[in-house]
Amino acid sequence: MSSPLQRRVRDWIAAPAYPWVTGGVVTAGAVAELIVIPAGVTTTIGVLVSAASLMWRRSFPPIAVLTVAAGLLGFAGDVNLYVSIMVSGLIGCYCLGRRRVLHPALTVAGGALGAVCVNLVHINTWSRMELPVPALWEKGSLSLFAESFLLTVVVFGAVMMGDAVRSREETRTERHLAQARMIAMERQQAAEAERAAIARELHDIVSHSVSMIAVQAESATYTTPGLTPEARDGFQQIAATARSSMAELRRLLGVLRTPQGEVALTAPQPTLDHLGELVEQHRAVGGLAELRITGERVPLPAAWELSAYRITQEALTNARKHAPGARTVVEVDYGAGRLLTLRVRDDGPGVGSGPGTGHGLTGMRERAALVGGRLSAGAGPDGGFLVEAELPWGSG
């Protein structure tokens, strides 16, 4: 994680005024340097143009070509290398790589050619200054080109640094975009799955009860002897209202239905009879699980059956996530007093999902509270993690 100072520096570099300020500072330094160390016309023009052009490097990146070319021209006009030329040349090469004005190979090749040209001009100048300069291709003449080699290395380093920064920023941007797309897709899938789950549970629990009301009310008019016409009409109205409610419920379910979940929308919801399949699924993905059932199996209301199944399902999911490879035991106890007790314990490190995960312990507690029960979760008495739910479904 970056420090506040690093963030402030990045914000300052990204500010619109940054190239103008830095270009102005380099230009002012170039003017001061020329006053202290006067130069010829060619060098003076090259130094000033190279420095001043930095102010437009962000608004018009190709101008960095002029920056580097003017710097090489200024260096060629004098054997002295001005500091302002070094600074502007490095920034110009970095900008060419950072903005990818040209392919990095072409940029380095162009800089190397310019460095050789500058070196040749200096060799000619040294010979006119009556310095001991060997003729080209004679012994020791290769040392004369050390200057062009050093300049090429500097150009290569600055261009590659700019190109590396550009590649890193592009990678970071692509990663952020991919993460944003993935988060959006996951949110959409989660919303669709939740809508489909709501629709399925409404269909399996509510519609069954309403349809039973309609059937019983309609059949009562034929099976109940001695009904008055008014009572018979009342039963018919109850049946009609129930059928109307069913039609409205189907309409609401159509709003919640997702294109992929249309077939599964009315599929039967799992019950406690499906716990064996759930445990087998847990084993199929590498988990170790055992199902223990005590007491006499009693058919429970649909909401209780579904809540108990979902709690067990989520507990096994948490065991796979937080204690992979641990042995898990699922216990179902049909106790006296119409109390269903669920226990899911593992021998893992004793870590479970926190209350803020959305689909972890909070979801299981809400499932238990929905049917008037309670749920506790935490480290087990013998180690591992224990989820225990008590779901009362009627008075004793």
Task: Explain the overall architecture.
There is one protein chain. Helices cover 62% and strands 10% of the residues. It is α+β, with helices and mostly antiparallel strands. The chain folds into three domains: 177 residues, no CATH class; 72 residues; 121 residues, Histidine kinase-like ATPase, C-terminal domain (Heat Shock Protein 90, 2-Layer Sandwich). Strands 1-2-3-5-4 form a five-stranded mixed beta sheet, with helices on one face. Strand 1, helix 10 and strand 2 form a beta-alpha-beta unit. The longest helix is centred in the middle third of the chain and has 78 residues. The radius of gyration is 40 Å and the shape is elongated.
Give a topology summary.
Elements: H1 4-14, H2 18-36, H3 41-52, H4 63-76, H5 83-98, H6 104-128, H7 146-223, H8 229-256, H9 275-284, E1 288-295, H10 302-322, E2 327-335, E3 339-346, H11 361-370, E4 374-379, E5 385-392
Parallel strand pairs: 1-2
Antiparallel strand pairs: 2-3, 3-5, 4-5
Helix pairs in contact: 2-3, 2-5, 3-4, 3-5, 4-5, 4-6, 5-7, 6-7, 7-8, 9-10, 10-11
Q: Count up the domains.
A: 3
User: In terms of structural class, how would the helical and strand content be classed?
Assistant: alpha+beta
- The number of E-state strands comes to 5
Number of helices in the DSSP assignment:
11
Low-confidence stretches: 260-266, 354-358
Query: Mean pLDDT, rounded to whole units?
Result: 83
User: What share of residues is helical?
Assistant: 55-70%
Span of the ends, CA to CA: 59 Å
Report the radius of gyration as a whole number of Å.
40 Å
Order of helices and strands: HHHHHHHHHEHEEHEE
Shape: elongated
Largest sheet: 5 strands, mixed
Strand content: 5-15%
Strand order of the largest sheet: 1-2-3-5-4
